[in-house]
Amino acid sequence: MDKLFFTDIPLWNLFIRAVVVYLCVLLLLRIAGKRQMGQMEATEFVALLLISNAVQNAMNGGDNSLTAGLFLAAVLIGTSALMTFLTFKSRLVRNIFEGTPRLLVHKGKIISENISKEFISESELRILLRKQGFHHLADVEVAILEADGSLSITGHHPAPVSKTE
Fold first, then answer.
1. Domain count, the chain
2. What is the pLDDT of residues 56-91, one digit of tens each?
3. Are 90 and 110 found together in one domain?
4. Bridge partner list, 154
5. Radius of gyration of the chain from Cα atoms?
6. Is the separation of the CB atoms in 19 and 63 below 8 Å?
7. Which residues contact 107 (CB under 8 A, 6 or more apart)?
8. What is the CATH number of the domain that holds 128?
């Protein structure tokens, strides 16, 4: 019963471990690219699930007490709230941890250099455009991959073909 509430590791040590792991995983996901958040494939989702298991011991240092688990959860939620505040207040922090939007299509032309930087193939981009109702590149004025991984598109949809009776 003692193992349930008493920690083997000082709380300050758990605090530092949780913050360091949180920031490192956040940076690794940021380095991996915007797709990690917006258009996750099965392999990327599995990797994300395994990351949580891989860093568990780095955070708890082998302490499996209820107190340590709840304390770590509180630290992670607090760190997340702090990061939300810092990214709101600081452009530098926002650019480091969230990234910046990237122009993928301009006036119907795919910007190959930018889709390569985001590890998006031309066929994947065309799929994303079609999902938003743009079946021809000529109809796309601008397509931007947002920092959160979503795709913003402006352009003109062709007029619907009316059936004559």
1. 2
2. 888 888 888 888 888 999 999 999 999 999 999 999
3. no
4. 142
5. 22
6. no
7. 141, 142
8. 3.30.240.20
